Give the backbone structure.
Amino acid sequence: MTLALLALGALLVASLAYTVACWAAPFTTCSRCKGLGKRTTWLRNERPCQACKSTGRRVRLGRRIHTRASALHQRGTR
Ligand SMILES: [Zn+2]
């Protein structure tokens, strides 16, 4: 019982920390190009990164969920 309560508390703290991170810094470095904006193919050709459109940054998943949810709320409460 105590272990489950401890695990639940840790999960709550981690999700709260992620929420604060999404609020404070909604952008993070692109994981595909590691923030470079370009990718190297196996033939060593450089191509622009398609995942981040060569910006090297992408929106966090939690922020995307928040944006979608707030847009849905806006549409629903018009
Ligand atoms: Zn990228």
